[in-house]
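I hope you will forgive my troubling you with a question about protein structure. The record follows directly beneath this note:
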Amino acid sequence: MLDNAVTLNKVDLTTKALVPKKKARPNLRCKFCTIVKAYSTIYGLWSHIFLKHNDIPNAKRLQEIQRTASLWRAYWAQDVDGGRGGPTVTKLAQAELATFS
């Protein structure tokens, strides 16, 4: 009667290592807008902040661009290309400089 029995080897009883979950893509939303405005690119968000919020002091707009640059850089380095070169990485590095204006 044990002809149909299933047997397992010890190696079959172990679990596989979990693949690390990717960090979620940062939300690209304008914090200065009263309604939710989301953007698909970091450049789109920055352009919006620069062109549409002249009523916000430059220092605050620059601070927000730099904050989003840091978030995007962390995401890009971890999940996109490991922080290798390219125009996006160059622009992120420029935005994070203390002399950025």
